């Protein structure tokens, strides 16, 4: 006698239910995937709520420096591209199950990190330069009009992107591809706090100290100082450089520790979910 | 006296409560092909991974070419290589691109020349321009073997080198490995479930069960000692925990 349920419809519904259950099991066993579900809507509401709040009281602000929003978008993209390029290059090795081959070669983990940073720099430039060109063509705004400060802003933002990307890669190495979504969303956690489109002073007083702990907040304040007042704030640059140095060291150390743990737990021969 | 290529002393590897490798010790002489045999979960891949430093032992020491792997891994890695079904090459890169990347990682002087040599030896010429992900499993095995031979390793570790291959391709790879060892004097260590492969290729065999080395010797000596006709029967005796006396 067959052990299968009777009607075709019931069986079909059971198969649908089984697949739903498969994804429920996946979510239940992977906190990064569950976190991602609530992360995006929350971040969007917070970011655009703060932007709205700022412009309600500063509607004449943009008139003083018309390119400020475009410059902010382009520079924030440096953080995003810097971070995602590091994380994606690492993920490529996980997806292709190539880590084991790489690390039986003489490649040192520090060399691997240096390669990830180099690839990230190239990918960020490839992504940013055409966008800057489009801004010139369509909106008659050239980010290059900022002059030398642009190089300093770019360097600080990409280094912060690298730190975030390294931390993400460490988590992916430790928790496997189940943590992959972190690579896509991590940097946006810093967006509302970084004062990209509004001054840090717009943020609630309680979170302003957190914002001042992030290098991008200093960069975007510095960018506004250049665009609105025509001055370059060396104090902001010094703070950004110092914080970036600390975060980069911490991120690389975290990755190297994750690599050590991977050698203890045998994760370099694994991958998958 | 023949020098030692590998020396393993009291090595244990635990994953939490699981003891994957339990206080093993063995030596492998230079230029010898040694088989690492055992059922699934016996500790073969774990042992190979520790020899390469991909995995750190919980206790004990592993020496390869006279160097302590946990301390001087980078000094020996240029002289070793691995082919394993548990690792792969980037599928979107062509075979040539993959071999070029690894040629540079191993610091080869003439990367293109070496790829050309291997393409001739392993009959890869027609595959070089193809994406690695488009290859059949037999073709991919040859490419993985080419990656493992790029640096002409003094120690070649092979994890199930002919698993999932058709008999013709498997036989071809065994023939190539025999020729490679004769030509270079390399030390080969292979984990395999294929007993005819072991009888053909291996001078020595280490039998593992539940993380321990339970027997070792030359294949013909083991067959004699267990009173069996071939290594397949010896393997079954050992896997089912029947010693030489019980088997007779």
What descriptive keywords fit this protein?
heterodimer, A: mainly alpha, B: 248 residues, alpha/beta, six-stranded mixed sheet, four-stranded antiparallel sheet
Describe the protein.
The complex is a heterodimer of chains A (273) and B (248). Chain A has 273 residues and is mainly alpha-helical. Chain A has one domain. Helix content of chain A is 73%, strand content 0%. Chain A is built from eleven helices and no strands. Chain A has helices at 8-28, 31-57, 61-64, 68-95, 99-102, 109-139, 149-175, 180-185, 208-211, 215-229, 234-265. Chain A is globular. Chain A starts with 7 loop residues before the first helix and ends in an 8-residue tail after the last helix. Chain B contains ten helices and ten strands. Chain B has a six-stranded mixed beta sheet with strand order 6-7-8-3-9-10. In chain B, strands 2-1-4-5 form a four-stranded antiparallel beta sheet. The interface between A and B is medium-sized, with 22 and 28 residues.
Number of strands of chain B: 10
**N-to-C series of helices and strands of chain B:** EEEHEEHEHHHEHEHEEHHH
> What gross morphology of chain A would you assign?
globular
N-end to C-end Cα span of chain B: 35 Å
If strands are numbered along the chain, what order do they take across the biggest sheet of chain B? Answer: 6-7-8-3-9-10
The proportion of residues in beta strands of chain B is 25-35%
Nearest-integer average pLDDT of chain A: 86
Could you give the distance between the termini of chain A? 38 Å
Sheet of most strands of chain A: none
Overall 3D shape of chain B: globular
Uncertain stretches of 5 or more adjacent residues of chain B: none
């Amino acid at each position: 006698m067959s052990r299968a349920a009777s009607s075709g419809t019931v069986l079909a519904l059971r198969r649908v239910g089984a697949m739903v259950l498969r994804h429920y099991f996946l979510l239940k066993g992977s906190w990064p995937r569950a976190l991602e579900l609530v992360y995006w809507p929350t971040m969007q509401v917070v970011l655009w709520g703060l932007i709205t709040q700022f412009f309600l009281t500063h509607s004449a602000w943009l008139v003083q420096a018309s390119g400020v929003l475009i410059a902010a978008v382009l520079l924030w993209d440096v953080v995003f591209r810097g971070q995602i390029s590091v994380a994606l290059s690492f993920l490529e090795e996980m997806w292709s199950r190539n880590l084991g081959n790489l690390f039986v070669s003489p490649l040192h983990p520090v060399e691997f990190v240096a390669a990830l940073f180099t690839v990230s720099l190239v990918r960020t430039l490839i992504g940013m330069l055409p966008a800057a060109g489009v801004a010139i063509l369509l909106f008659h705004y050239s980010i290059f009009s900022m002059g030398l400060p642009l190089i300093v802003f770019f360097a600080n933002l990409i280094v912060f992107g690298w730190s975030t990307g390294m931390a993400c890669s460490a988590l992916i190495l430790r928790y496997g591809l189940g943590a992959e979504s972190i690579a896509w969303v991590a940097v946006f956690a810093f967006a509302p706090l970084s004062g990209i489109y509004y001054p840090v002073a717009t943020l609630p007083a309680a979170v302003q100290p957190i914002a001042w702990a992030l290098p991008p907040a200093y960069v975007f304040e510095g960018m506004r100082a250049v665009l609105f007042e025509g001055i370059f704030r060396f104090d902001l640059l010094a703070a950004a450089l110092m914080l970036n140095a600390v975060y980069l060291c911490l991120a690389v150390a975290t990755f190297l520790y994750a690599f050590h743990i991977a050698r203890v737990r045998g994760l370099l021969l694994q991958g998958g979910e | 006296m023949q020098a030692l290529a590998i020396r393993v002393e009291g090595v244990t590897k635990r994953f939490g409560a699981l003891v994957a490798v339990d206080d093993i010790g063995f030596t492998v002489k230079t230029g010898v092909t040694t088989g690492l045999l055992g059922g699934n979960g016996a500790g073969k891949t774990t042992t190979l991974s520790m020899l390469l430093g991909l995995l750190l032992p919980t206790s004990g020491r592993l020496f390869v070419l006279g160097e302590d792997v946990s301390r001087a891994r980078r000094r020996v890695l240029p002289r070793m290589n691995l082919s394993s079904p548990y690792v792969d090459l980037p599928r979107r890169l062509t075979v040539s691109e993959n071999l070029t990347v690894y040629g540079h990682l191993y610091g080869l002087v003439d990367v293109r020349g070496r790829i050309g040599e291997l393409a001739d030896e392993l009959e890869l010429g027609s595959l070089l321009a193809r994406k690695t992900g488009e290859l059949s499993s037999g073709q991919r095995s040859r490419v993985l073997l080419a990656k493992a031979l790029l640096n002409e390793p003094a120690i070649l570790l092979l994890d199930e080198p002919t698993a999932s291959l058709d008999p013709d391709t498997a036989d071809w790879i065994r023939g190539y490995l025999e020729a490679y060892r004769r030509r270079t004097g390399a030390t080969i260590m292979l984990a395999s479930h294929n007993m005819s492969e072991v009888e053909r290729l291996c001078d020595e065999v280490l039998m593992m069960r539940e993380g321990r080395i339970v027997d070792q010797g030359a294949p013909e000596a083991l067959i004699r000692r267990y009173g069996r006709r071939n290594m397949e029967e010896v393997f079954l005796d050992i896997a089912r925990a029947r010693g030489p006396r019980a088997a007779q």
